[in-house]
Amino acid sequence: MLIETAPAPSRPAPPHERPSSFAIDVPEALLVRARAGERAAFEQVYRRFERPVFTLALRICGEREAASDVLQDTMLKVIARIGDFRGNGSPFWGWLRQIAVNEALMHLRRGRRQAGELPVDGHEPADDSAPPPPAAADTAQLQRALAQLPAATRGVLWLYHAEGYTHEEIAALMQRTPSFSKSQLARGTRRLRALLQIEENDHA
User: Fold this and answer.
1) Which of 94, 97, 140, 173 has the most neighbouring CB atoms within 10 Å?
2) Has residue 134 been placed in a domain?
3) Alpha carbon distance 28, 131 (integer Å)
4) CA-CA distance, 96 to 104, in Å (whole number)?
5) How many domains does the chain have?
6) CA-to-CA separations, 131 to 164, 179, 188, in angstroms, rounded
7) Which conformational region is residue 165 in: left (phi greater than 0), alpha (psi within -120 to 50 degrees), or beta?
């Protein structure tokens, strides 16, 4: 009698191979119109990227009001600088995403909240291959769990798991070291898993 075995679970794709929420195609004709200052073109760009910018800002900053501020500041900066974007093989969404990340982290620094991070416990090694957090039952559940993490830890988790940044890139953005990013990823992922489990038990 043959025993059927379940296929081995697939490993999550490396961060640099995961699609970004910002990976939205923008026609060159639309960018030309936006560079020329056409208001309707700017409105189309805004509508395309409103959701990913707000979501990123909400995950990093932890508050809807702060996320709205980051969204506004990001799009104002995009409007002011769109004439500087030349592409050179890089997608427009990558350029816009970089502005959004910088604005979100700048907001944290202004609020003096980025210093918050999960402490080193002295015996747990940083896990560079930490799997992504489990999918929450709903967006609100995930947001509640993320809100309980320190700001810097939350930022590392989102940039690494959701946006595919490397530890070296995160370190440069946060003005820290790759080791800091790796340790916060490992500890933050474990803490988020525990928080989501508590959420599930509370709503069971």
Assistant:
1) 97
2) no
3) 37
4) 13
5) 2
6) 13, 17, 11
7) beta
- pTM here is 0.75
Burial of 24 (0-12, 13-18, 19+ CB in 10 A): middle
Residue 94 falls inside a structural domain: yes
CATH number of the domain encompassing residue 160: 1.10.10.10
Tens of pLDDT, residues 88-115: 778 999 999 999 999 999 988 876 544 4
Q: Is residue 24 part of a domain?
A: yes
Are 19 and 90 a contacting pair, CB within 8 Å?
A: no
Instruction: Provide the residue range defining the domain that includes 169.
Output: 139-202
Residue 69: C-alpha distances to residues 43, 66, 77, 103, 167 (Å): 18, 5, 12, 9, 27
- Looking at residue 89, which CATH number applies to its domain? 1.10.1740.10
Query: Are residues 76 and 152 both part of a single domain?
Result: no
Are 37 and 101 in a shared domain?
A: yes
Residue whose C-alpha is closest to residue 144's, from 59, 57, 50: 59
